[in-house]
Structure formats: structure tokens, C-alpha cells
Specification:
Helix content is 35%, strand content 18%. By secondary structure, the chain is of the alpha/beta class. Helix 4 links the parallel strand 1 and strand 2. The relative contact order is 0.12.
Amino acid sequence: MRPSRLDRQLRIEGWNQQALENAKVGVVGDTDLLTSLYLMSASALGINNMVVLAPVLNSKLVEIAKKLNPQFTLTHVEGFYTHPVMAEVFKACNLIVDLSHYGLANKLLIEKGYREKIPIIRGFCYEQNGEQGLKVFTYVRGREWQELEQLISPFHFPNGHFDDGVLDTIIAGITLDETKNLLMGLSVSDQLISYKKAKATTVQNRSNILVVGSGALGIFVGFGLAYSGFRYITFMDPDIIEMTNLNRQVLFYEAIGRSKAETLTERLNSIFNMDNKAQVTYFDKDTDIASYDVVFDCVDNFESRIVLSEKCKVQGKALISGGTSVDAGQVVIYNPMKNGVAPAELLGLYDIVEARSPETYQRERAACIYQPDPSVIMTNQIAAGFMVDAYRMLLDGQEPKNIFYDSNNKEKI
């Protein structure tokens, strides 16, 4: 079970799955989605032993975590971290992830990390002074206190706070990447990882949306659109679900051999009461996109990405294009109102591929089974979160920038 489900990440050079499986990870959460999104992704990655102190968890996301990973063990202590005595909950943990929004927990955990030399990964989203954003920082003993002051919530005790499912998705991915690096003895960022944008002034979520590709990127784009209130999405993908998808494609548990597009559609509709549709087919030059307001490019090959870029440019459709590797991801936006460069041109895809026909890719697709590319969940959820946020900014009249995430870069974003 382990080699096949985790095959794509076991192929990564230097990967230490045993370090993940043997670890015990503590999490301090709040009354929002973030903790549950982190748990679900950590379970998919193969972290088996987690202890969580939080008042509530999202039961649907926890159920997904348990179905993805039969070895997943969760100890949930209901409550807030408000007294030093509660640190006993995290006895023998290798590290603690602080996803809370109240200063008392932040200070108690930093003090615990300093005293016991336990790494503390802090991640949260915020809204203040007309801005929305996120911050992630990995504390180990010896960090500068000036940086730590930016991570302490202004609210001393548990209280209502800003939350956003799209930003939560990005935070969960970045904090999980830092978790993986700590457990494997790899380097973590020594800087504050941050992202900010202007606060949205309008909410327009009745778009008719096409998502091309129903793998890991497509799934997390679906989550992000659902959390943003969009309800009319068509997912297009010709593929069926394989066991090796389950280390990152979190909605495909108990669905081996089924259509990706149909399964994703059904499960998002069930979880969020949406009205999504599925098309089990390739995107090609004859695909009709006239009825869609925006296209999300979540494909895994350059040939289809070229066709998507050309089609959207000719028909004047907004295109949000995402791509990932093991340790990086990018989001490139084509806004027809600006008449800018389409993603295929910007990324130099014409120079990378010799043939632009998607039919070539279809004929050679079976070869991927024998020469699979390594892949992990984190870069997919990070890129997907930025893809959805870019579209929300477009609808709000803002001008989103192309995003490049590199886990090997100190600043990451």
C-alpha cells in the first residue's frame, strides 16, 4: 500500500518517508478551516501521528484525511491553548505548528520552543489597514525577536478573526513544506514568508468557470473556488484515477479506476452543495469555450497549455495558468482587457516543445505510466490557492501579478 500510494514522492532524490511516518507533530488551531486543511494535506503526505489542540475541526476534511491514509492517527483535544500546563498535550512532539489567532497561544508556544528547543512553525492570515494577506515563519531557538513580534496576534485571548479559505490553502501548503523540511533535516526558510494584497471591495461569484485538468491542481482550485462562493464550474479531464495519485489528489480516495473529472465534480457538489459539471475529454483546438467567463489551466503538459493560451487569447477569455514541480510552482494570468502576453508565450513553451498538437500528447500518454514524474501535495495547493486569488482580484478590478513560488528560495514567494 505504501509504495504505490506514495510512489510519486518516494521518487524524489533524498526523500525520507520514514522520517515523516515516525514523527509526532503537534498543532494548535482555532475555529477556522486552516487546521483541518493542514491535517488533510499532512495525512496525504504520509505524516501518521498528529496531536491537535483546537476547539473544533472540520469533520469532512478530517474524514478525507483518514480515508486517504489508513495509518493516520489523530488525537484531538478540544479547547484553546491558554495556560502553560496545556503544553503537556504536546509531549514527545518533534515540532509544533501554530495556526492560532490569539496572542496568548503565540507567546506560550514561542516560550516553549525557546525553553525546550522545539521548532515552532507559525502560519496565519490577516486583514488590517485595507490589506489582506498571510505570514509564515519557522521559529527555532536563536531567531531574532524583532521578526517574532510580527507573528503575535493583537488579540490576547480567543476571539472572532478574519479567515479566508483560499489563503488558508496556501498557508497549509507552505507550513507543510516547512514541516517536511524540519522532519527530514533539511533547511527551512530563515525569513518571514509573506503575501499581501488590497482588501476586496466587491463580491462577484456567479461566474461560469472551466477548469481544465482534475488532478491535484484542479482539486485545490475547486476547493478554493468553493470557499469563495463560486457554484458553477465545469471540470474537464480524460484521465482515470490511479493509486499513485493519492499522495496529492485528496478527493480521490476509494475511487481507483473512476473518472477524475466525474469524481471531483460529484464530491465537490456533495461537500459544498454546488452545481458543477464534468467533461471526460481532452481540451483541443475545437473545444468550445464561448459560454465561460474564465478558464483555469491545470493541465500537466505543454502541448495542451499552448492550445489553451491560443484559444483564450483569440476568444478574449481570462486565463489563469498554473504549473508545479516538486519544489516550485508558478501562476501566470492572461487578462484580455490588458491584451498582454499569453502564458504559453511568457513561459517560452513554443521553444520547449517541437510539436504543438495535443494529439501527439494523447498518443504518448501511456508512456507516463512507465516514466512518472515526482510530485508532492504542497506545491499544488500553494499554486492553486494563488490561482483562485488571482481571479478574485481580477473580478475586484485589481491587477494580480504573476506568482512564482520556490521552496528552495529563502523568500519562497
